[in-house]
Each structure stands twice: as C-alpha cells, then as structure tokens.
C-alpha cells in the first residue's frame, strides 16, 4: 500500500458517495447512465472473485464488498425505486453497452493474463473498466447541461484512474520493476477517455459556469 493507491481508493469511494448523495437527497438519477452503473456491477463481481480464494487484508475485503454492494445498490435505485426510476432518461442513455461487454470478453479470452477462469474474468474486468465510462460520457453529451453533483461524480472517477496510474509508476520503481501491460494500457485508455471531460470541467469551474459538453 502506498499513498497513490490509498488516494485512488478513497477518491473512487468518494465518487460513489457523491453519486449516492445525489440520488438520495434529490430523489433523482437525471444525468446518470444506468448502463455505466450496470457495467460497474459486472466489473466488480468478475474482478473480486478472489474474495473466495485469497486473503490479503481486512482493508482489501471491506473495500471490495463496499464497491460490489454500492454498485448493486445504485442499479437498484435507478431501476426499482418508485421515485428515482421515474427520473431516468432511457432515451438519452441509448449507448449499446452490451457490445462493450462482448468485445472485452472476447479480448480477455484472446489476451488473458493467465488462462484460468478467475484470471480470464479478472482480465475481462480490467478491459471492461477501461471503457465503462463511455455510456456515461455519451449521455452527458446528449443532455448537455450537467448538474454539479453529476459533474463531481464523473470528475472523481477520472481522478481515481489517474491516481492509479501514478500508483503503478511508483510501484514500478519501488517494488516490482516490471510493467503489467494489461492494467497499464487499460488504465491509460480509460484516463484518456476522461481528457475531454476534464478540460470542460476545469473550464466551467474556472469561469463559474454550468458544465456543458459539446455535442
């Protein structure tokens, strides 16, 4: 554990807190992609299967359970809460996310870390997380005006990935002295997808304007 990893974990956790705060206080999921949230459920469940096979630490177990439980809870709110589900804009959240699942699964079979069930699913989760934000970004481009909490949520997700890249660089020089290509490349791709959002987020923050993404 190092400072970058710890900061990344808690930034990720803070992004979930911000999203749950938005949903619970406003009773609205407007601007949030259900498809991205469903992809996160798949990512966490397939990545954390080692909960049943390996023990690392109490911290590791607790964080994994929080990410799995919170992602399922968010999907439940958006699908089944009698008030929140009425604010979900299905027409704008129209990205066909199942293509991402299929493509990442095929890639995980063709280019796995190791060819075992757990490792193929772990690799699949890494590939899928790299593109999990795509439906959310497409939705924000279509809705144009982005509320403050939604903007903060997406910004924190991007910051979490950037911090994890710093974590990998730090570990390369201090611990493992080798590059794990699958998470490194996937993490860089994911962070790059946020670049356009970061630019407009910082621009709106600097000018005290409502956040808008170009169509």
Automatic annotation (TrEMBL):
| Any GO BP annotation | protein transport
Q: Which UniProt keywords apply?
A: Endoplasmic reticulum, ER-Golgi transport, Membrane, Protein transport, Receptor, Transmembrane, Transmembrane helix, Transport
Per its record, what are the GO molecular function terms?
ER retention sequence binding
Q: Name one GO cellular component term.
A: endoplasmic reticulum membrane
Q: What is its main location?
A: endoplasmic reticulum
Q: Which residues cross the membrane?
A: 55-77, 98-118, 124-141, 153-170, 182-202
* Superkingdom of the organism of origin: Eukaryota
Topology of this chain in the membrane? Multi-pass membrane protein
Q: Where in the cell is it found?
A: Endoplasmic reticulum membrane
Q: List the PANTHER family hit by this protein, alphabetically.
A: ER LUMEN PROTEIN RETAINING RECEPTOR
Membership in a protein family: Belongs to the ERD2 family.
Name this protein carries in UniProt: ER lumen protein-retaining receptor
Origin organism of this chain?
Answer: Acacia crassicarpa (northern wattle)
């Amino acid at each position: 554990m190092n400072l970058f990893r710890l900061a990344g974990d808690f930034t990720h956790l803070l992004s979930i807190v911000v999203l749950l705060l938005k949903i619970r206080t406003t009773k609205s999921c407007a601007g949030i992609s259900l498809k991205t949230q469903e992809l996160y459920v798949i990512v966490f469940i397939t990545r954390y299967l080692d909960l049943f096979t390996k023990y690392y630490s109490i911290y590791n177990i607790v964080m994994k359970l929080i990410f799995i439980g919170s992602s399922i809870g968010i999907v439940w709110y958006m699908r089944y809460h009698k008030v929140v589900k009425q604010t979900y804009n299905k027409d704008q959240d129209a990205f066909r996310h199942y293509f991402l699942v299929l493509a990442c699964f095929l890639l995980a079979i063709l280019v796995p870390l190791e060819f075992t069930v757990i490792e193929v699913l772990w690799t699949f989760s890494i590939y899928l997380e790299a593109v999990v934000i795509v439906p959310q970004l497409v939705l924000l481009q279509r809705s144009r005006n982005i509320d403050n909490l939604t903007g903060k949520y997406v910004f924190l997700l991007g910051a979490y990935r950037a911090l994890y890249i710093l974590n990998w660089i730090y570990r390369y020089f201090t611990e493992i002295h080798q590059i794990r290509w699958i998470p490194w490349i996937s993490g860089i791709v994911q962070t790059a997808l946020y670049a356009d959002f970061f630019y407009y987020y910082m621009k709106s923050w600097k000018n005290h304007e409502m956040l808008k993404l170009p169509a």
